[in-house]
Amino acid sequence: MVKESQEAKAKRVKKIIATLKKTYPDAKLALNFSNPLELLIGLILAAQAHDDAVNSVTQELFRRHRTATDWAGEDEQVLHAQLRTSNFYRNKTRSIQKACRTLMDHFGGQVPSTLDELLTLPGVGRKTANVILGNAFEQPAIGVDTHVARVSNRLGLTRQTNPDKIEADLVTVVPRSEWVKFCHLLQFHGRRVCTARNPDCPDCAINKLCPWPKSNRHSQVSTDK
Ligand code: SF4
Description:
There is one protein chain. By secondary structure, the protein is mostly helical. The protein has helices at residues 6-23, 36-45, 51-64, 68-73, 76-83, 89-106, 115-118, 126-136, 146-154, 163-173, 179-192, 212-215, 217-224. It has two domains: 6-28 and 142-216, Helix-hairpin-Helix base-excision DNA repair enzymes (C-terminal) (Endonuclease Iii, domain 2); 36-136, Hypothetical protein, domain 2 (Endonuclease III, domain 1, Orthogonal Bundle), CATH 1.10.340. The longest helix has 18 residues, at 6-23. The site of iron/sulfur cluster (SF4) has 14 residues, from helix 9 and helix 12.
């Protein structure tokens, strides 16, 4: 098989983005938030949880807790009761309160807007930090979640499984101005068409730009049964 040049891959990525933008004109982050703190809390709650479930919990929580001080100062048992429908709610309560105490102690109660600072917050890894930078601060950033990782691999944009290495590959072929939108598009596509177990390649808008159906023809047949 002829190895695709970086230049050719970058051109293909532009076509993928253009097609997915037409397919999903409303693509955006699935979590509801109105400020960086709400996004931080939402991302902590979203670990191993569905975004819709997080949104239904945060709607009321964000009315009751508006600042890092509100979250850090809340009684732990009260938060447990408010979060009890979330999975791992005890651990998530602890993470939220620790992160908010760090915000109060080191950042004047505000969520910082640089990668290095965000990574000092307890429980905040590179994916979460990049999602906050891209969506709350409108900075170019690629947050590699499960959908971005899976669809990027199938599209042949990376062969890595480690999210940090996937991000390093993607930044070389995705135009910087599209980094955030690219993630939204792959998240939408990954939820609707390029699903983990049963990707609908025949009806996929970008199947002509994707090597996966050809390279996985046999496994695809068995998966579709
Ligand atoms: S062709 Fe199949 S594997 Fe490729 S992006 Fe579409 S659904 Fe995913």
